[in-house]
Design brief:
Length: about 80
C-alpha cells in the first residue's frame, strides 16, 4: 500500500497551504515559466464614434420585434 505525501495528494494540499507555497518557491520549473500580467479593465471602454450608428443601435435594442414562427413547408 502506497501512502501519498501531502504534496502529491491534491486534497491534502488544500489543508496545507504553507507547504504548497514552500514547494512553489523551490520549484525550478515554475521559476522558468514565462509570464505576463494583463489588465483588461485598465483601458477605457470603446465608445461609438458615429452618433447616427449609436442612435440606430439604441433604437434596435429598444424595439420589441416579434418574428413569425418558421413554417415547415419550406423543408
Amino acid at each position: 500500500m502506497r501512502i501519498d505525501t501531502p504534496l502529491a495528494n491534491p486534497f491534502a494540499l488544500m489543508m496545507a497551504p504553507q507547504q504548497v507555497l514552500e514547494a512553489m518557491e523551490k520549484s525550478d520549473s515554475l521559476r522558468r515559466l514565462q509570464h505576463q500580467v494583463f489588465h483588461p479593465l485598465d483601458t477605457r471602454a470603446a465608445f461609438q464614434a458615429d452618433a447616427d450608428l449609436a442612435a440606430f443601435d439604441a433604437a434596435i435594442e429598444r424595439a420589441n420585434i416579434v418574428l413569425a414562427p418558421e413554417s415547415d413547408e419550406a423543408a
